[in-house]
Amino acid sequence: MSKADTTVVVLGAGPAGLTVANLLHARGVDTVVLDRCTREQLVGRSRAGLLEHRTVELLDRNGLASRLHAEGTVHRGCEFRSAGTSFFTDYSAHYGGTPHWVYPQQEIVTDLLDAYEAAGGTVHYATAVESVRAESGQVVVECADGAVWRADYAAGADGQHGASKHGVPVEAVTEYTMQHEFRWLTLLAHAAPSAEHTVYAQHENGFAGHLLRSDTVTRFHLQIPFGDTIEDWPDERIWTELRTRLAKPGWTLNEGEIFSKNVLEMESRVTEPMRHGRLFLLGDAAHVITPSGGKGMNLAIADAAEFAETVVRHLRSGSEADLDRYSQLRVPDVWKAQEFSHALLHMMHTYYPSDSPDAAFRQKLQQSRLWQLRNSPAYARNFAENYIGPPLDGLPGAEAQL
Fold it and tell me: Which keywords describe this protein according to UniProt (predicted)?
């Protein structure tokens, strides 16, 4: 076996990869980060940021959350609207006062990059990875510029289309996939929030979501039929539909310039196991989840925390069982989040066409779920637990603080 160039090579400088890099670098583990984007591109990507309590606590414990606390916002409840009625769910009260935080993903990336580089960490920007392969107790990474990296471990956090995922032989894993029957038009508008919390609206025209971003910017989601394009949705139509779907007596929708529009297809995927040899899959490389419930970045950072612990344990013990433990612990947590996201998605969306044989039955199921969320404390507690996410110390593997 040839000598490794680094102990850990991290593929992808997103939330998962940078969390790995910071946690391991702080423990004295040699790491290097590769990403195909420039630094400007990485910190300029506008992404939503709903942070579970465990995510914030992990960052807190490792000195990575100072700006988050200064500029992020705490959220403790959300509102559901349907058929002219509405109710507010104080999910924090159902879960011991534990809140959510809203802090855009690009700000997390900025903070993690700043911390890693300030501590002497190395990021190779604008470095495209062509291939990744696990061999003889190492991982070999070949880059488009001709560079070859050999590492004892690789954190494959370069997304669902990255080289890491393609570095795992198809026969070595099982992929579970689902294409959902819903599509969103996702929007950012220069408009002050119209409520102090997230609003989910179920309407016969389709789902609408009002999500907080900042004091001057609001994120919206609109369910749209298959076949529709951005061109089918001029601003006037968008605002008309948002007013209709989010309508509530005495409530006014704040409007403004829409500066971002995208069509989002809904897909879910889980890869098992989440490693092949010394190549470990994290975040979207291992699992894709719908945006419903805001679980994607939180799962990725939880993957990163467990991977970092896996490396530290294995460096101490040399036991193959410690490597197996990563996937054994992460897969159940991923499926728990998938189930919640799927349930919330189907609770709030309209089934097109409305005259299909089972549409009325499905709508009645939606109404029952909303009724239970409003009237059953046990149902509301279960929703709160899944929405906020598990405590950090309740997450398998989190007992070994990094």
Answer: FAD, Flavoprotein, Monooxygenase, Oxidoreductase
Alpha helices in 259-319 (DSSP H): 296-317
What pLDDT score was predicted for residue 272?
98
User: For residue 297, what are its two tokens?
Assistant: 């970045």
In the annotation, is 387 catalytic? yes
Give tens-digit pLDDT for 87-146.
Answer: 999 999 999 999 999 999 999 999 999 999 999 999 999 999 999 999 889 999 999 999
Per annotation, catalytic residue among 15, 25, 53, 75: 75
d(CA 186, CA 221): 5
Domain positions in the chain are 6-74+100-176+268-353
Alpha-carbon distance values, 35 to 4, 112, 119, 303 (Å)? 20, 14, 19, 18
Measured distance CA(218)–CA(174) in Å, rounded: 39
pLDDT (0 to 100) of residue 3: 62
Q: Determine the Cα–Cα distance for residues 114 and 121; give it in Å rounded to an integer.
A: 10
Q: Is residue 357 flagged as an active site residue?
A: no
Exactly one of 295, 314, 342, 349 is catalytic; name it. 295
pLDDT at residue 394, as a whole number:
55
At residue 153, the 3 state secondary structure works out as strand
Q: Which CATH superfamily is domain 6-74+100-176+268-353 in?
A: FAD/NAD(P)-binding domain (3.50.50.60)
Residue pLDDT, tens place only, 155-211 = 999 999 999 999 999 999 999 999 999 999 999 999 999 999 999 999 999 999 999
Is residue 227 packed enough to be buried (19+ CB in 10 Å), middle (13-18) or exposed (0-12)? Answer: exposed
Q: Which residue in the list 99, 104, 193, 291 is annotated as catalytic?
A: 291
Kindly report the number of other CB atoms within 10 A of residue 148's CB atom: 10
Q: Pick out the chain residues at pLDDT < 50.
A: 1, 396-402
**164 near 285, Cβ under 8 Å?**
yes
